[in-house]
Amino acid sequence: MGMAQLGNRLYTGESAFDFVGRRKLWFLIAGALVLVSAVLLWKPGLTYGIEFEGGTEFRVSGTSDQQAAREAVEAVVSGSVPTVTTAGSGVRVQTETLTTQQLDAVSGELAQRLDVPRDNVTTSTVGPSWGSDVTRKALTGLVVFLVVVSIVMALYFRAWTMAVASLVALFHDLIITAGVYALTGFEVTPASVIGFLTILGYSLYDTVVVFDKVRENTEEAFLHRDRTFADAANHAVNQTVVRSVNTTVVALLPVAAILFIGDLLLGAGTLRDISLALFVGMLVGAYSSIFVATPLLVTLRTREARVAALDRDVRAGAQEPAASQ
Question: CB within 10 Å: which end of the chain, N or C, has fewer?
Answer without folding.
Answer: C
